[in-house]
Structures are given as structure tokens and as C-alpha cells.
Amino acid sequence: MMNRRTLLVSATASAALAALGITPSVLAASRIKLGDAQPFGFDALIERARALAGKPYAPPPSPPADVLSRIDYDAHGKIRFRTDDALFASGPGQFPVTFFHLGTYFRTPVRMHVIERAKGGPGKAREIVYDDAYFDMPADSPAHKLPPGSGFAGFRFQESRLGDQKTRDWRKNDWVAFLGASYFRAIGDLYQYGLSARGIAIDVAEAGKSEEFPAFTHFWFETPEGNGDTVTVYALLDGPSIAGAYRFVMQRGKAVIMDVECALFLRKDVGRLGLAPLTSMFWFSEGIKGTAVDWRPEVHDSDGLALWNGAGEHIWRPLNNPPQTTASAFSDDNPKGFGLLQRDRLFDHYQDGVNYERRPSLWVEPRDGWGAGSVQLVELRTDDEIHDNIVAMWVPKAPAKAGSTYRLRYRLHWQADEPFPSPLARCVATRLGNGGQPGQPRPKGVRKFMVEFKGAPLEKLPFGVKPEAVLTASRGSFSYVFTEAVPNNVPGHWRAQFDLTADGNQPVDIRLFLRLNGKPLSETWLYQYHPFQSPAG
Known about the structure:
Layout: H1 11-19, H2 25-28, E1 33-34, E2 38-40, H3 42-53, H4 65-70, H5 73-77, E3 80-81, E4 97-100, E5 111-117, E6 123-129, E7 135-136, E8 154-158, E9 174-179, E10 183-186, E11 196-198, E12 201-202, E13 215-222, E14 230-239, E15 242-252, E16 256-266, E17 273-280, E18 282-284, E19 299-300, E20 304-308, E21 314-318, E22 326-333, E23 337-341, E24 361-366, E25 372-379, E26 390-396, E27 405-415, E28 426-434, E29 446-454, H6 456-459, E30 468-473, E31 477-485, E32 493-501, E33 508-516, E34 519-520, E35 524-529
Parallel strand pairs: 5-13, 21-35
Antiparallel strand pairs: 1-6, 2-6, 3-7, 4-8, 5-6, 8-9, 9-10, 10-11, 11-17, 12-17, 13-14, 14-15, 15-16, 16-27, 17-26, 18-19, 20-21, 20-23, 22-25, 23-24, 24-27, 25-26, 28-29, 29-32, 30-33, 31-32, 33-34, 33-35
């Protein structure tokens, strides 16, 4: 039986598409209302962002605030987009698009558009007009009070309808989602969401300033062709200090790969301009955990920052839940990449059905020379897993002044492991404890570190030969330093042990790698130790 939900695309829209020489079937099957056709191109979008940045910032018009306030957590959870009305729902091999509803936690209306191209002609974009008929919701839901055309909160791509229906239902499984400000995320090889990326980060942990959250206010979806596994989305970014245009070319294979191109224009000076920012959560690990703060051994979406700098050095920096907000800068020139990774993949280390062991790693691969700057890591204090407290980003060396323009291309790899691992042994564990030697009284103010490495160079060590632990620290002194094979009969699995004595409460930056005959055997381990840190919790 047909109802009004099955007849939302008007005859007028279908006739207009036909006039462009476009087959309307991929849109007609999605049963959505479309606005008038407007020319669209990425170059024109860039010029639109440039012009926008030349004007004072004006927040987008918002639907009635009292209605949004009533769409609280419970009410929002009862609203579901009808997957039969998904954009591109019927196209062969295509990825259907479903939309998130506005609510008290997602108040900024986002305008969605679909692009169709006549053969050899320019693109034409039509707005997808909001209607509550797209959503299943209770009859008494406050969302019914929103006026037509209110906009959406975000969107997600579902799995292809031609996927493996025995194991994955496209109506239930999505692989990328854009929701809230400029945040977006994707699943990796292990079919699990985790950390997020952002379009931009403005003044994160900048002294004397409040962090700004520019938002993607408009999206445009390129109509897919054929049976490809790639989708293209364009976005307009706007905020008090910046405007920008983005193009995302996203590929769903074993993992998710995104090619990002953006043009950014500053309205105002920015103290800390974070490009290609990543956001994650780190509460505690086996390294530092308060007694009985939680029943699980570890809780985190990512356990470390990986760097591949312009000089070719691979670096691993385990994450912290610090006593206070800290910002670390790793200066570089034309970095090869960086990422927030989840290296620990053992369920027994988490014991939680939310699958922390399956959270994706996210790697940023610059596609052009980024020049001088630094990868900056901001770590904030958290007492629960519900708060993202980790940000990693590229910050250019030159001051970010009003009127500045940035053109950037980079690739995001959402997968189980980093895409360009070091050929050297890599760090697989960082453990902390009280310092001292067996059979002797424990000295006060001394901390013991056990850092484990595993990899091919260590497997090739001649019998009886031990690697050298090369250690430096920003302050303090080392004692009881040695290396040994981990007694688990796993080839190439070694650990370096050392005690650190450091007075005072200021952080200590430690650097370590394994070496033999002057040649490195491992990536470089960096750690920021906070003396007398209170237990996480």
C-alpha cells in the first residue's frame, strides 16, 4: 500500500532532471523532496568560502530553540531515518545515504544537496528538503513541531545493498558518519567506530582563549556512477574565525580511505590552528590506573601517537591522562605522516563488550609538502570514557593571521594498523611501577619503566647478544638500566628496563630506542612522565 512517504519526489523534480538529460531513477527511488537546481562546482565552492570569509560571521538560522530543547537524549534516540527513503537506495552497488535528526545536542542545521551531472555538462545541485516524514518517530515526538525545511544534523553512508547480506545488513550497518560541528568518523578493518577526525581545530588548549568549533553547514553528494566503491562529498565550513571548502573522496574497501582536499580562509587571527585534526579518548591503560577506579584493565579508543617525520624517523608516544591539560609539540619539516593508533588488540586487556580492541587507528598522510610546523598533541584530564580528551593535529610554524589562505591535500587511513609501519622493531607495551632492585629496600621517588619492543631486527640478533638501550630525559637521572628478551619464547620480543629519579612535579620527557653497533634496531619511544600523578579516575 502506498502512502505519502512513497510519493515525496514530485513530478516537477523528475521532469527537470529529464530535461538535463539525467536518468532520475537513482533519486526517485529515494523518495525525498528536492529543491530547485543550482549550478555547482568545487572551484565555485572555494570562491564561495573565500567571499564568506570576507564578511562578518553570521550563525546559520536555527529552528525554534524550545522545540530543539524538547528533543532531548531520550526523544532523539526514538527518531530513526526510514532506510527505504535513503538517498541512492536503489542504485546498483551504491552506498545509500541516511540522515541524522536535529535535537538538543545537535542544534546547528546542516543543508544537504545532491549533485547530478548531464553527460559532458556541469553539475547541478538540488537541496534535500527536510520533512519529518523521512523519519520513524512516536506520534507525540516533539520533532513533529519543527517546521518543514529545518535541515538535518548530519549524515552517514550505509553499506552497499549488494554487500554480503548474510553477515551485513546495509540498513543497520554504516561505514562513515558526519555529525556535529566538523566532526566525522569511519570504521576500519574491524567494523568498529572509535576516534573521530575534524575538518579544523581552532585554539585547542590555547591560553586565554576558548576553543572554537566551526561547523560544516552544507554538504553536497555526488551521484555515484556504476558499481564503484568510491563516494564523493563536498562541504562548506563556517565559523567565527574561518571559512573553508572541502572535498572528500571516500573509498570503502577492506578499510576506509579518504582523500581530503580543502581551501581555508581566516577571518581572524588564530592562536593555534590545527590542520587535519584527530580526536580520541584515553582514560587509563596498564601503565597508570587508580586502584578500583574501574573493573576493566584498560579503557581507551587509542593508546598512542605515531609519527613518521620528515627525516624518516618513526616515533611512538604512548598517551596519558595527565593531572592537568598538557600540549606537546613535535617540530618537523614536511612530515610523512602521523596518527592516533590502537595497537593493543587483545580482548583480555579490555574485557568489555564495547570492543575497544577493535577500535580503528587513524593515520594522516600528507599529499603535498606541508612545510615547517609541528605535530601537536593535546592531552586533557578525564574521569570517564564518555569524554574525548586527546587531540593530535598539524600546526604550521607561521602565525595564523586574519586574511591567511591555506590549501591542503591529505589522505586519511581508517584501518587496524598504521599503513606505513617502520621496518624496525616497534613498541608493543609500556609498563610503570615502583623503582628499585630485587631484595633491596624500595627507594622513594624512583619510578621503574618496562618498555617492550618486538620486530624483525630483534629476531636476527645473534645468540647471547643484547641490544643497547639508548636513553635521554629532559631532567632527572637513570639507574638500573638493562635489556633482556621477554621470557615468553616469542622471537624478537625484548624489553628495556630502567629506573628514573626526578624531583619536583614538572613533567619529564623521556626518549628511548634500542641500538646495536651504532645502528638503531627499534623505533623511538617517547614518553611524558608526570611525577606523583594521582591515579586516573
